[in-house]
Amino acid sequence: MNNFFNKSDLSRQDADKIVSETLNNCDDGELYLEESKSESILLDDNKIKSSNYSSDLGFGFRAISDEVVAYSYSNEISKDSLKSSSENLKSTLKSIKGTYNHEIPKTNKQLYEDINPIEQKTLNSKLDVLNKVNDFLRKKDGSVKQVTASFSGEQKSIEIIRSGGESITDVRPLIRFNVSVMLEKNGRKETGVYGIGGRQSYDDYLKNDNWKNVCEEALRIASVNLESKPAPAGEMKVVLGPGWPAILIHEAIGHGLEGDFNRKKTSAFHNLMGQKVASEGVTIVDDGTIDNRRGSLTIDDEGTPTERTVLIENGILKGFMQDRHNARLMNTKSTGSGRRENYRHIVLPRMRNTMMLSGNQTQDEMIKSVDKGIFAVSFGGGQVDITSGKFVFNCTEAYEINNGKIGSPIKGATLIGDGPSILKEVSMVGNDMLMDPGIGTCGKAGQGVPVGVAQPSILIEKMTVGGTKL
Amino acid sequence: MVKDQEFLKLKASYCLDLAKKMGATDASVTVGHTISETVNFRNKNLEASDRSDGLALSIEIYIDKKRSSITSSNLIDKNIKILVEKCYETTKITPEDEFNSLPDKNLLAQKLKNLDLYDQTRFENEKKIEYLNELEEVASEPEKIINTESSFTENKTNFILANSDGFCDGWKKSSFTASSVTVAKDENSMERDYEYTSCRHLADIKNASELGKKAAEQTIKKLSPKKIGSEKINLIFDKKIAKGMLSVFAGAISASAISRGTSFLKDKINQQVFSKVINVIDKPDIVKGIGSKYFDSEGVNSKTLNLVEDGLLKNYLIDTYNGKKLNLQSNGRSGGTTNLYFKNGNISFEELLKNSSKSLYITETIGHGSNLVTGDYSVGAAGYLIENGEFKYPVNEITIAGNFKDMFKNIILANDLEFEYSVNSPTMMIEGMTVAGK
Fold first, then answer.
1. Distance CA B284, CA B304 (A)
2. What kind of fold does domain B5-221 have according to CATH?
3. Are residues B366 and A124, on separate chains, in Cβ contact within 8 Å?
4. pLDDT at A2 over 70
5. A186 and A238: one domain?
6. CA diameter of chain B
7. What is the pLDDT of residue B349?
8. Which of residues A226, A248, A277 is at a domain's end?
9. How far apart are CA B63 and CA A326, in angstroms?
10. In Å, what is the CA distance from A383 to each residue of A60, A265, B46, B59?
11. Which whole number is the average pLDDT over B39-47?
């Protein structure tokens, strides 16, 4: 456990007093203390290009009354600094009075171990793995022209102090290992990227020389792309592979089901609760409670234990994701989805691990049923316009489907669709649900937070593919 | 108040001395302080206020050709000492890299002209609230506008960059930014759009009601969009999208992408990469410029660069490390471009619209579909169908695709360049790109 008060002139009693006195006439709020230690080590162009260590410490003080949120942060944990933040909050909220809600659920579960992954593996052994990755890939294929490999690790300790002195703590490890490879053959260059990670130590992910599998997957994607033809342009059937392609779910409907946009009625979903928004057989949950996953949290950044929130059940819209602020204004409960990038940012309702559950068809059946379309296996990233509901995601590995058979690989292309209607186009749901490898970061309002996704193979009847071939 | 130069210099030299004492052969330190205050409005009411006060420190330690770095927000001397020790120990076991070094001394900058980047005016939160009140009053006036969100941010920064070769300099800068996001609704659709303004001096900020009016108008214009068929068509890029092409170009000519061989513009110096009428300039010394700099993030003097002359690629963006690798001298672009822009074209905006009987005017792109290795481009888009120079109807849920190598050679620019941001472009037309729709 981190002690935020032993290096400061601010005692816990002082902090409790200032917090209680500031939040006394507010509806909600808390003092959020955070210390993070992080590293990133990068091999690039045959060399260790950078090794960076970072330590960050600070607090964010929040007071909420009615619809108004006042926030102040500083990276100086001291009595003066906290007092000046308190004055700042009070002056914003001076004319609005609230009643503090002391209720906050408790949990005894812990979804990850209290470790510092950075210190669990020596720098030398990390450098060693990165050099092995470089040698392995360059030896394996003569057309490898560039290799980039990196480790990033973090330990984040947080403490939340609420009015009345209640304190809630969490220590969160997070690591990621990434390999990117560029091939050049006959004047063509293509890249392939793959990575793994989650809330365990580096070695939990690198058992049995698992780094080799990561290298081989990156190499395989790059090799496929070297043979790729221009992608088609226009509306067609799309088969999505299991796992990471679930960023479709994240973009198409996940963001639209976050509480803030629905309270403000700016989401394309705000008036669809209880209605059919997806084909029968489509069930989607957002789950923060899976052990060691990148998107999992024992408690969210407001102190609420995370849960498995059902968003869509058998095609019907069932729930939104809520933080305390939006939940209160919408007369419901927090789903443990209140998150922030760090102490510099305000809490927003965010996704954790967003998953479409398995159905009972096979990927084979899907491919066989398509006369003309594409089969998309791997993706770069996506984006959504919450209000119009339009979303995109970029293929990094995809193939043509002709007469029920997988054909040539096609160049990376953007796929675009309409969130509220796309899931009604899902005509088959596979029995092969898979979690992503633990690499996702979601951006919202300038804040990035680690997330996960999962889905089985699915067949979408109609989607626009943004290639160049008409 | 933002911390003064003396305080930052003191911290920087404390770090340098420590590093030297421990045995570092070279070191470089950046210390910065930022104070930022934001007020947010929603539907004509105060929604949030946010104050941040942050110090930041980054140290790079060299032991001959070994290098590693450390960053922190905790500037207490005791903590700095622990970090410098940790950084030194890490550097010792980091492998050598022959290209690691501080910048060449003769390239280091001396401040000459005053660029007027700091306005000490404090715009109290009450004043921000007045501004936002006026903005939202106008933005929410049209019946079809159902939600308005706006914000005003005041930002003051000071920093010092110091290295063991004796360089020690920095500057204060301020920025004032206002934005308005509006949501409009009709019987067929709901749409959102935004408008923003940013400047170094408060006096230059756009009028609140103009900003709100423009955001609302743009949003309403997007309502009831249609999806069009898939076809080859001429695209006209609104300025705010056209400037994105320049950012892609800057990424592709960064010395890092060139030296790693991961750019579609590698080995293209003195070759035709744009059509003959295109000129691209990066100018660091624009007075009050949003991207203006006295020197780059290593202290190297940044001079105006003609990146593209008559369509020929003339310069890469070079930092010390990648410069040494490419056997080129740094041109003061560690940390990227400064004020980057296309020179004006020869025809007016109206003439550009009338240039073809049918074209698509792009006001928005979505997704990250730019591949700098291959030059392939594919993104989601929205805009308007234009026939004979007239806006016909809004278009949505389409993609646009091509390859930058071809696209750059088919650019036609209007003559409506304005210096509003750090990257600026006139309205742009690109012929013969693929649109995927129905």
1. 6
2. PmbA/TldD fold (3.30.2290)
3. no
4. no
5. no
6. 72
7. 97
8. A226
9. 52
10. 28, 20, 29, 35
11. 95
Does residue A249 sit in helix, strand or coil? helix
Amino acid at B75: L
For the segment B45-54, the average pLDDT, to the nearest whole number, is 91
- Chain A within 8 Å of B244 (Cβ-Cβ)? no
Percent of chain A with pLDDT over 70: 100
State whether A250 and A148 are in the same domain: no
CA-to-CA distance for B201 and B196, rounded, in angstroms? 15
B2 touching A, CB under 8 A?
A: no
Judge: B367–A383 Cβ closer than 8 Å, yes or no. yes
- Domain holding A147, by residue range, is 123-158+165-226
CB-based contact A470 B231, cutoff 8 Å:
yes
Residue ranges, comma separated, of all CATH 3.30.2290.10 domains in chain B are: 5-221
* Pairwise CA distance, residues A122 & B348, whole Å: 62
* B144-150: average pLDDT: 97
Cβ of A394 within 8 Å of Cβ of B378? The answer is yes
Q: Do A222 and A237 have their domain in common?
A: no
Share of chain B above pLDDT 70, in %: 100
Residue A305, token pair as written in the block: 């234990």
Rounded distance, CA A445 to CA A350, Å?
Answer: 11
First to last CA, chain B: 56
**Shared domain check, A454 and A418:** yes
* Domain end among A226, A253, A278: A226
Q: In which band, very low, low, confident or very high, does the pLDDT at A199 lie, cut at 50, 70 and 90?
A: very high
**Which chain B residues have a beta carbon less than 8 Å from that of A464?**
227, 397-399, 436-438
Q: What is the pLDDT of residue A412?
A: 87
Residue A464, strand partner residues:
A235, A416
Q: Which residue of A has its CA nearest to B366?
A: A383
A222 and A278 assigned to the same domain: no
- In a domain? residue A69: no
Residues sharing a CB contact under 8 Å with residue B48, sequence separation 6 or more, in sequence order: A68, A69, A70, A71, A346, B38, B39, B40
Any domain includes A62 = no
pLDDT tens digit sequence for B337-354: 999 999 999 999 999 999
Both tokens of A133, joined, read 């990755």
DSSP calls for A394-452: EEEEEEEEETTEEEEEE---EEEEEHHHHGGGEEEEBS--EE--S-EEEEETTEEEEEE
Residue contact A346–B48, C-beta within 8 A: yes
Contact A390 B125 (CB under 8 A): no
Nearest residue to B201 (alpha-carbon basis) of B112, B115, B303, B111: B115
Q: Residue A59 domain-assigned?
A: no
Determine which of B53, B224, B228, B232 to mutate to test the interface with A (most A C-beta atoms within 10 Å): B53
Residues of A in contact with B368 (CB under 8 A): 380-381, 383, 394
Task: Identify the DSSP state of A251.
Answer: I
**Does residue A30 fall inside a structural domain?**
no
Answer yes or no: do A194 and A243 share one domain.
no
Tens-place pLDDT, residues B232-263: 999 999 999 999 999 999 999 999 999 999 99
CB–CB of A294/A198 below 8 Å? yes
| Same-domain check for residues A217 and A240 | no
Q: For the segment A361-419, what is each residue's pLDDT rounded down to a tens digit? A: 999 999 999 999 999 999 888 999 999 999 999 999 999 999 999 999 999 889 999 99
Among A106-110, A450-454, B134-138, the least confident range? A106-110
A413 to chain B: which residues are within 8 Å by CB?
Answer: 369, 378, 399, 401
pLDDT exceeding 90 applies to what percent of chain B?
95
Give the bridge partners for A177, in sequence order: A151, A196
Per-residue model confidence (pLDDT) at position A1: 57
Q: Please list the alpha-helical segments (H only) found in A227-357.
A: 247-249, 259-263, 324-329
Number of domains into which chain A is organized: 2
Q: Is the same domain home to A190 and A269?
A: no
CB contacts of B83 in chain A (<8 Å) are: 53, 55
- What ipTM, to 2 d.p.? 0.89
